[in-house]
Amino acid sequence: MSLLLRVLLPFTVVLSAAAGCFLPSGDGADAEPSGSGAGGPVGQGGSGTGADRGLPCDVDAVLATHCRSCHGSTPSAPMALVTYEDLAANAVSDPTRSVGALSVERMASTAAPMPPGSGPTVPAAERAVLEAWLDAGMPRGACGDGGAGPVATVCTSERFWKMGDDNPHPRGGELDEEGPWMNPGRACITCHAESGDFDDDDDDDDFVVLGGTVYPTLHEPDLCYGVDDGTDEVRVVITDAQNRTYSLPLEPTGNFHLPRRAGALTFPIRAKVVANGKERVMNTPQASGDCNRCHTEQGANGAPGRIHLP
Question: Where is this region: Disordered (predicted)?
């Protein structure tokens, strides 16, 4: 068994051997790594449900996505942003204002944004959710009796991949049954490792060391086509532990991948999605390149849901 498989398999979950994700064809990456780094957080939820925390579901979702990797229930930052009480408390830096109000102000700051970045890193539409809640007087909320339950999902593209068939290309023509575009949303490395599609040979250049799918929104179902970047303006930028950076394009179904032939990749890695001059940045280093293993329809292992556009 290859060294990479021995590293990745402890992180995998068992899926059907028939449920492959994609087979690599072509380099799928800018083969020359650059030396630039990536930073800035994408958060994950704290303990409990939205109902437990006393927050409206939409407010809770924004905080889970952008804040709680540092401001969680056991925060590495000065304060938690988990419960209603956390947000309603008087801020230490300005006791006349709430923690929630100052948090939103920092999200919109260009000089000292939170999460950190070269400018505001929380999209305006998501900041607007928090601003509307503050303007309404910070009413308590609950995502449902006894817990939030599954979040409603939608296939934005209204197009699903059918396994075992050629499938329509979003811009005309067909996509072959097998290729780097197949089975969007599925955990690629897990599927192929379980099904034995990759050889154990360390020289197998077709081995995918990293892969996933970019969607327009946070909660989209498996096999739904993701972002079709016909303009080549969307990139997934991966920076590894040796500060090597790879800029990965999207397939017509939203999939991205890095095959071994494109160059070395040393874990842990950081990632960001760059689109139309905006960025969605993941700050927590990752020990696996199987992105869709955590970025599922509902989110798993601390991820809030799908990898999605900034």
Answer: 29-51, 285-310
In this prediction, what percent of the chain has a pLDDT beyond 70?
75
Same structural domain for residues 98 and 210?
Answer: no
Q: Are 57 and 141 in contact, with CB atoms under 8 Å apart?
A: yes
Q: Look at the chain and report how many structural domains it folds into.
A: 2
For residue 117, pLDDT beyond 60: yes
In one-letter notation, the amino acid at residue 73 is S
Amino acid 197 reads: D
CA neighbor of 163 nearest in space, from 185, 193, 137, 183: 183
Per residue in 213-224, pLDDT tens?
A: 999 999 999 999
13 plus 60 within the same structural domain: no
Q: Is residue 249 part of a domain?
A: yes
CA distances from 7 to 1, 47, 87 (A): 10, 28, 40
Q: What share of the chain is helix, strand, coil (3-state, %, to 5)?
A: 20, 15, 65
pLDDT, mean of residues 261-288: 87
